[in-house]
Design goal:
The structure holds 2 protein chains of 2 kinds. By secondary structure, chain A is an all-alpha fold. Chain A has helices spanning 10-33, 39-53, 72-79, 81-99, 107-130, 136-165, 172-204, 206-212, 222-242, 245-260, 269-281, 287-297, 301-339; strands at residues 57-59, 66-68. The relative contact order of chain A is 0.11. By secondary structure, chain B is mainly alpha-helical. Chain B is built from 13 helices and 2 strands, in the order αααααααββαααααα. The N and C termini of chain B lie far apart (54 Å). The chains are: A mainly alpha, B mainly alpha. Chains A and B meet through helix 1, helix 2, helix 4, helix 7 and helix 8 of A and helix 1, helix 3, helix 4, helix 5 and helix 6 of B.
């Protein structure tokens, strides 16, 4: 459930970057304060382990499909939540850069959805329910509940970020109804697999797990977290005020409503006010919008179609010409740089 | 696994010697972030105005002497999630917005095409950044840009052991398959035990690595030999591209070109 750049608006992406970045900063400080000197290689190699573990598919009971381990809860159990959050952030960064899973703008969203919830929600929930009780059934139940909670919250995060970006047309309710049931069995499998792996390790080599165990889990400083949340909300509000995606969407839906009813030549006061806000708030006027606004206000049907067709054709011709131009420039650069003998070949 | 070999290939691209590779990693990172933010700030239905932005990844790949095929393949491999979310747009948004002759185009199809094109642009730009920079240099750049060194070290470590651990896992699962001829799928507890065993081996390896590094004086920081220098050419690179993004964001260049080609008002 990686969010993709193509579904995130800059305002939402930027806000989530700040939230995740702040959490990374806090966790990095916590990890640096740790007295465990083997933590750096342990975190790196366990990150690589999570990567490898994600290749293994676990069959999901009753559905016939299969899912793989997310690893957030397992890492929290092994390393403590702060180090685990950093490991997940690094895994997601490598996935974004090398597998094209997610993307740069969506990286903040992904780190929050897949890292914050397992480390800072699922792990405390697991601790609370299992509560040092040695009975294995209790551990399984605790892990399943914790993992399901983390995955449902993460899926909800994907839905909220997509809806707020208003790039996908999917309604929030429909998307929620789609995402939450899909992630329910995945959460169950995640919980079961986490405990099964921990049980194996405890059985096979009880001393081994102590090497990775955290010294003492320290709680997240709540005050700092609140400040980060406030900062992120303020920035998000400012960004979305200036970024043109939201006003565009609003303007567009208003124009659509106006077009569907009687296309009145004089705009309503609300329209005018919105247009004024729009022209004042957008830094970069959207070229496309002009034809949209024109579309809603054209009086004659013929003139309307003609203008649209004209825009479409010159748009397509211009788009294709630009595409060819770009590719030609690329080919030109390539042949120019090939002409020179490469210095120091790899 | 093929997927792992392909990442190794990305790293090889990062070691090519070209003008683009010699740019400061910070300049490339900042420009790429500006690129992604600009592309994503367009209206949902925009397609034509996005075409000029293709110049950025294309120019970088060309000047960096990086083959387009592997990069493009990776972009396509990552497409399914976006495709399934985007493909619902045509069903949900049916208001016509344009027409080409008899064909009427609805807003949903426009935004569908727009999402897919943006996906290619943004993912392509991120992959291009790595292919033109390499992991080590990118890590050094990130650290000097204020990313906590704990995270940067973590990323470099993860990257270093990714191949070793996953090769190990692949070998373990292959031998399991060889020993269980005829069984279609291994039961849940077998998979969990295999992963547990891989986890133990990983922990052991981390412990060995830690001892080896401690005996060589590792203090928790990774250092690179070549120091980063932000030169005038780097500033020019950033300024030039950001100016281009601003121009292409303000004016719909293909539409202007199309008008000129059609002989209309330019």
């Amino acid at each position: 459930m990686h969010m993709s750049d193509a579904l995130v608006s800059p305002a939402v992406g930027g806000t989530m970057w700040i939230l995740s970045g702040g959490t990374i900063g806090l966790c990095a400080r916590k990890v640096r304060q740790s007295t465990r000197d083997n933590l750096v290689p342990m975190m790196g190699i366990l990150g690589a382990f999570v990567f490898a573990a994600q290749m293994v598919n676990f069959p999901i009971p009753l559905t016939g499909s299969s899912g793989h381990l997310g690893g957030g809860l397992l890492l929290s159990l092994l390393l403590g939540p702060h180090a685990a959050f950093l490991v997940i952030a690094s895994v997601l960064t490598v996935q974004a850069f090398f597998f094209a899973d997610g993307g740069l703008l969506a990286l903040g969203c992904n780190i929050f959805n897949l890292g914050f919830f397992p480390a800072f929600v699922a792990y405390p929930v697991y601790k609370l329910i299992s509560g040092g009780n040695p009975r294995p059934a209790r551990h399984y139940a605790a892990a399943v509940i914790a993992a399901v909670a983390a995955l449902q919250l993460g899926a909800m995060g994907v839905v909220m970020q997509t809806s707020l970006s208003s790039i996908s047309e999917l309604s929030t309710a429909a998307f929620t109804a789609l995402m939450l049931p899909i992630h329910l069995p995945i959460g169950i499998v995640e919980g079961l697999a986490t405990v099964a792996i921990m049980a194996f390790v405890a059985r096979a080599h009880p001393a081994g797990i102590a090497l990775a165990r955290p010294a003492a889990p320290a709680p997240m400083p709540a005050g700092m977290l609140v400040w980060f949340a406030v900062a992120a909300m303020v920035t998000g509000g400012l960004l979305s005020w200036f970024a043109s995606t939201r006003p565009d969407g609003l303007e567009w839906s208003l124009a659509r409503v106006a077009g569907r009813e009687e296309p009145s030549p004089g705009r309503t006061p609300a329209h005018r006010a919105l247009a004024q806000i729009q022209s004042r708030t957008t830094i970069l006027p959207d070229y496309n919008l002009r034809s949209t606004a024109g579309l809603a206000n054209q009086e004659t049907e013929g003139g309307r179609t003609a203008e649209r067709t004209g825009t479409s054709i010159s748009g397509i011709a211009g788009g294709l010409a630009t595409l060819l131009l770009v590719l030609a420039v690329g080919a030109c650069i390539r042949s120019c740089s090939r002409a020179r003998p490469p210095r120091g070949t790899p | 696994m093929k997927r792992w070999r392909e990442i190794g290939q990305m790293d090889e691209f990062g070691r090519i010697d070209s003008p683009v590779h010699n740019l400061d990693p910070r300049a490339k990172a900042v420009t790429t972030i500006a690129f992604v933010a600009t592309v994503m700030s367009f209206h949902r239905h925009e397609i034509t105005a996005l075409v000029p932005f293709l110049l950025y990844p294309v120019a970088l790949l060309s000047a960096g002497r990086i083959p387009v095929g592997p990069v493009l393949r990776k972009v396509l491999l990552a497409a399914p999630f976006v495709f399934f979310v985007a493909v619902l747009n045509p069903l949900l948004e049916r208001a016509p917005v344009a027409s080409i002759g008899p064909i009427v185009i609805t807003g949903g199809w426009l935004s569908f095409a727009s999402i897919l094109f943006r996906f290619v642009l943004t993912v392509g730009a991120a992959l291009t950044l790595v292919a033109c920079t390499g992991v080590q240099r990118l890590g050094a750049g990130l650290e000097s840009m204020g990313v906590p060194y704990t995270l940067v070290t973590q990323i470099l470590f993860l990257y270093r052991y990714l191949f070793l651990i996953s090769d190990h896992g692949t070998r373990m699962f292959r031998s399991m398959e060889l020993r269980s001829v005829g069984a279609r799928t291994a039961p849940f507890h077998v998979r969990a035990s295999l992963l547990g065993s891989l986890l133990l081996r990983s922990i052991d390896r981390a412990e060995r690595v830690h001892l080896a590094m401690s005996s060589r004086g590792f203090d928790g920081r990774m250092r690179t030999l070549d120091a980063l220098r932000f030169r005038a050419s780097d500033a020019l690179f950033v300024a030039g591209w950001v100016a281009f993004f601003a121009v292409a964001r303000t004016w719909n260049l293909p539409l202007v070109l199309g008008d000129i080609l059609a002989g209309g008002p330019g």
